[in-house]
Design goal:
There is one protein chain. It is built from 3 helices and 44 strands. It is mainly β. It has a 22-stranded antiparallel barrel. Mean pLDDT is 90; it is low at 1-41.
Length: 782
């Protein structure tokens, strides 16, 4: 089966009730889900970088269509994390725009240069190298795919947990206009306008603009700023030439986002040890006094995607991209007016990437070969200000980390029979990481980089330049048996790796040394700051099926993953040249085993129940993961010690579940949709060391949506409720308090409170998920 590039994804990917397209949904449940170019009604995804029926792909995938995302009132990609099994997608602590992503126990929540995410984020097949500006707002979207498990063959390095693919809409051949506005609690006010038009038979232009704003959930009681507010402008522009039956399609797109939201201030969980400042009643309020630099995130990019059908069986594809983002952010760790532990920071990232693919589609053999290149620069600059500890003591860090990557890859599927097929693939990657790291203490104020008047004090704690090269082959193999086109039983093996590098917060003068003068050599500093790549071997078996004439679809997957050389970045209180400071600590802690089960299902419970054409549906997802460290080596008193029994895999609840019950019915010439979703996550550890203050116990969230669509869906109006029970739940936090180095148990002082390790007040702060929100959305299109 060959799918033309003019496939209408909006038609064929349209999901079942609740917005979830289960991986087992191999056939459309009604003819309305079929596209004009794919009349068998199959759901189509591009998980293997080519268009395939979802049932034919031996990968655990959850796909969300634009229509269902709109029905659910989804705002950004973090919204889909609650209904995707074994997946965590959260805004990272101090901003709305930096993403923390974990899939099947693998991810990364440290945003500084040098550390890389374990889940790949893709915008129209362009890999986003850094987590800053990766919380993509949902507008002008065709679909979002979540691929679980390592995708090292087709997607490369840093996809060892999985990948999230954000796919924007193709421009239609006819003039079009679409607008959507929303208004709700906390002064939520949003508007998205999209328009396109042809400039001839083969040329089309289009643009989208979005204004996304919301008042704060709380307040900063020190400076009067709203806390947890949202203030975003965004836009996309597209030029398309060809396609729609033409052998060549050239798609040039650009996007721009400016986020001027206030910094998100943390909620202190303990009283101030010196000031006695009490814990605030409202978890969305804060007292942090730092607001310099003023928070601002700016991100933009250009991409050119070229697809050329060279023959009936061979297609050439080129993906060229340039992206850049700049973040200025004030992070008040201690969340108090005094400068006890304040960190103003800049993140500056830029990347250029090029990918070539050659696809072959024959009667029995299908697949592709490709080449990928990435040149990326990530610069992080920040002060760590401990003004109340000493006379304006600041530890300044500048870490410039460059990455250059080449890769060649191939993946092919051979159909021995209509029932039995074998897929083999592999990728060979060459990585080079270069780092330029400077650590310098200042006294009397902050560093000049952030407008401070501090005076350099002593020699730099780190003044390092170095590079490392890594190379890795990551294979993939799978065997699929399809007793009928509606059922697929598969088994797969895949590998992935995440690049090594240098700790941008490491302090070179603290490197162990054998030199008699106590000064470590350049080689000893390089060894101290460097860390090796981590890798995974993953085994998966699964079933995807459509039963009862399409009334029930099921996807069931079981996986077992060996996770080795696990990178554990972090930061702790330390001493540099006799002064208290803030040091990076990273090591390849050892080994972990991740094993679990995922079940997704959609069921048509009834039709024509109360009126002709109505439908009652249920869709659900269940994830279970047993994630444990088998070995976790840390240095305690100079002695390598295995503390695996006292460590947990972070941001990985053992159970994730969701269920959506929905009812749709004709209403005049239009239709009404009502759906309610209950999602659950069991206890979540924010870091590897358990912390009863910031770890989140199991919780459930309840959402509901009521939408009316006019005839031909020319206009619609919807009422959406999120977190209707107003549950308070933690998503992340900061901790700088004393703990037992082996067990991680928090040490308390005579007053029964934790003892601070960096700054006299003590730092133990938390960030929370959104409270109850209710909003109305109205849309029109023609």
């Amino acid at each position: 089966m060959k799918f033309q590039h003019s496939v209408s994804y909006a038609a064929i990917i349209t999901g079942l009730a609740g917005g979830l397209v289960a991986p087992a949904a191999v056939q459309a449940q009604s003819s309305e889900m079929a596209s004009e170019d794919n009349d068998d009604g199959a759901i189509v995804v591009t998980a293997r970088r080519r268009e395939e029926r979802l049932t034919d792909v031996p990968i655990a995938i959850t796909a969300y269509s634009a229509e269902r995302l709109e029905q659910q009132g989804a705002v950004d990609i973090t919204d889909i994390g609650l209904t995707t099994p074994n997946t965590t997608l959260e805004s990272s602590r101090g901003t709305n725009s930096t993403l923390s992503a974990f899939i099947r126990g693998i991810g990364q929540q440290d945003p500084v240069s040098g550390f890389e995410q374990g889940v790949g984020i893709y915008l129209d097949d362009v890999y986003l190298n850094r987590p800053q500006a990766a919380v993509l707002d949902i507008y002008d979207v065709e679909r979002i795919e979540v691929l679980r498990g390592p995708q090292g063959t087709l997607y490369g390095r840093n996809t060892i947990g999985g990948a999230v693919k954000y796919v924007t809409k193709r421009l239609p051949q006819d003039p079009s206009f679409k607008a959507r506005v929303s208004y709700g609690t906390y002064d939520q006010a949003e508007a998205v306008v999209t328009a396109s038009m042809p400039l001839g038979d083969i040329v089309r232009v289009g643009a989208s603009g979005a204004r996304l704003s919301r008042g704060g959930f709380g307040d900063n009681l020190t400076n009067g700023l709203e806390n947890y507010n949202k203030d975003i402008w965004a836009g996309r522009g597209t030029l398309e030439v060809g396609g729609y039956g033409e052998p060549v399609l050239v798609r040039i797109s650009g996007d721009y986002t400016k986020d001027k939201s206030n910094p998100r201030g943390g909620h202190r969980l303990i009283p101030g040890a010196v000031s006695g400042a009490p814990v605030l009643d409202d978890v969305f309020d804060t007292r942090g006094g730092l607001n310099d630099p003023v928070q601002e995130i700016e991100a933009y990019g250009l991409a050119m995607n070229i697809t050329a059908n060279l023959s009936d069986t061979v297609t050439f594809r080129s993906i060229s991209a340039w992206r850049k983002d700049d973040t200025a952010t004030p992070i008040d760790f201690d969340a108090l007016p005094a400068v006890d532990l304040d960190v103003p920071g800049f993140y500056r990232n830029e990347q250029i990437s090029q990918e070539f693919q050659l696809l072959y589609e024959g009667d029995k053999l299908n697949g592709l070969v490709g080449f990928y290149y990435l040149d990326a620069k990530a610069d992080t600059l920040f002060d760590v200000r401990l003004f109340t500890t000493f006379a304006g003591l600041t530890a300044f860090t500048q870490a410039n980390v460059d990455t250059e990557t080449y890769a060649v890859f191939a993946d092919f599927t051979y159909d021995f029979t209509e029932q039995l097929s074998l897929s083999l693939g592999g990728r060979y990657t060459w990585d080079e990481r270069s780092a330029d790291i400077l650590r310098q203490n200042y006294l009397g104020g902050g560093s000049p980089t952030f407008g401070g008047a501090g005076i350099p004090f002593g020699a730099p704690g780190t003044d390092f330049e170095g590079s490392s090269k890594f190379k890795k082959f990551t294979p993939r193999a799978s065997l699929s048996f399809k007793p009928t086109p509606d059922h697929n039983i598969y088994a797969s093996f895949s590998q992935g790796f995440k690049g090594g590098g240098f700790d941008p917060r490491g302090v070179g003068v603290n490197a162990p040394t054998t030199n008699a003068n106590g000064v470590p050599s350049d080689a000893e500093v390089a060894s101290f700051l460097s860390f090796a790549p981590e890798s995974v071997d993953s085994y998966e078996i699964g079933y995807k099926g459509s039963l009862l004439d399409g009334a029930l679809t099921i996807a069931l997957a079981g996986f077992y993953t060996d996770y080795t050389d696990v990178q554990i970045p972090g930061s702790v209180a330390c001493t540099v040249a006799g002064l208290p400071s803030f040091c990076g600590v990273i090591n390849n802690a050892g080994k972990a085993t991740l094993k679990g089960v995922e079940l997704e299902a959609s069921a048509r419970l009834g039709e024509d129940l109360m009126t002709g054409g109505d439908r009652l549906m249920f869709s659900g997802a269940l994830g279970y993961i047993d994630a444990e460290y088998d070995e976790y080596i840390t240095n305690i008193g100079g002695v390598p010690t295995d503390v695996a029994e006292f460590r947990s895999v972070q941001n990985t609840p053992k159970w994730t579940a969701s269920g959506t019950l929905s009812y749709s019915t004709p209403a005049g010439d239009g239709d009404i949709y009502f759906g309610t979703t209950l999602s659950y996550r069991s206890k979540t550890n924010q870091f590897e060391i358990a912390n009863p203050y910031i770890d989140q116990n199991g919780f459930a969230l309840l959402d509901a949506n009521l939408v009316y669509n006019a005839p031909d869906k020319r206009w619609s109006i919807g009422l959406h409720g999120k977190n209707l029970t107003n549950k308070r739940y933690k998503t992340s936090g900061y901790t700088f308090v004393a703990a037992d180095p082996v067990t991680g148990e928090i040490v308390t002082g005579a007053n029964g409170q934790p003892i601070g390790t960096l700054g006299p007040e003590g730092t133990l702060t938390a960030f929370y998920g959104n409270p109850r929100q209710v909003f109305v959305t109205a849309g029109v299109k023609f």
